[in-house]
Amino acid sequence: RRYNFNPGPAALPLEVLEEAQEQFVDYQGTGISLLEMSHRSRTVEDLNQETQQLLLKLLGLPSGYEVLFMGGGASTQFALLPLNFLNTNQTANYALTGSFSEKAYKEASYVGRTHVAASSKDQHWRSIPELSATQLAPDSAYLHITMNNTIEGSRYNEIPEVGSTPLVADLTSEILSRKLELERFSMIYAGAQKNLGPAGVTIAIIREEWLEKASKKIPEIMRYETFAKNKSLFNTPPVHAIYMMNLVLKWVVNKGGVEQLEQLNRIKSALIYDVIDQSEGFYKGIIEVNHRSHMNITWRMENEGMERQFIEESEANGFEGLAGHRSVGGLRASAYNAVPFEACQALADFMVDFARRNG
Ligand code: PLP
What we know:
Its cofactor is pyridoxal 5'-phosphate. This is Phosphoserine aminotransferase. Pyridoxal 5'-phosphate binds at residues 74-75, 100, 150, 170, 193, 235-236. This protein starts with a strand and ends with a helix. It is an alpha/beta fold and 359 residues long. It has two domains: 23-254, Type I PLP-dependent aspartate aminotransferase-like (Major domain) (Aspartate Aminotransferase, domain 2, 3-Layer(aba) Sandwich); 256-358, Aspartate Aminotransferase, domain 1 (Alpha-Beta Complex). The chain is built from ten helices and 14 strands. The protein is globular and about 60 Å long. Bound molecules: pyridoxal-5'-phosphate.
């Protein structure tokens, strides 16, 4: 298999793929595939329930939260969040740190009043802006942040302190990659296709007390409450994606949990950042050093011709997915949980060799 640095859908653990392959036609001796099974069956209900509990446990969230499995990707959450939680007499605050946070902000602006509490757009997203309660609108519904910026390659090191305003985070590109005090959030959400499993399922975890305040004036299918009441079995869920997530969560447990993965992610990303920093400007890191993401590592090279050559040679040498996002160009290595240390070591070696030959 190739070294997979795709940004998302991203690498899955080989063990997970093999286990799913083994169960594909005859799921756990039931005589049918999970793809063919009713979501009202005991088997699927149990799988659904077990996966929700496992996720809460791995995230270190105590009781008092609802786990929802939804469709539509993280982008649908950009719209559902304000539809559920932005009342007409309130303002939704957004911290802009990259293009996904801008998209979230734009969707909210179709729903109600919004306020940009902080932005690093003027710095071309190279840094993460300071945030405090004084920057928020007086009648705040919530503050939305993007903890890890997938395209730009930056992250918050700490969860910002913003007083009593409900805090909501998009964790799509870093969930389960480091220990965070998630009780500080009223809601978190993530598309599965990076650290949780395949595309098709999106998770939203909402504090029960906050959920009680959600709007009852929107269509039922858009209400978080509907999913919570029905344990995410209101309509047909993406069962196979949930099953794959279940396998990924068990893989995380086997790896020693989030703490172990965090340590490994620090080491993996440092291998590549060290090459960038020691290359005497051959590779140019984009993000301010203290806000560099451990999931998405971005850099530029002298010119686009050299960047193209790097991508072509990397592909010929067994690497996948190193081109930067089409909106920004440059290079990006997405080293999510399932990307093994050996892949990062191989990439670091390739980068050193490429610089020696072309520097
Ligand atoms: N938010 C972040 C941080 C992302 O990285 C992505 C996708 O890469 C999205 C939102 C959009 O997710 P989806 O494609 O599931 O709508």
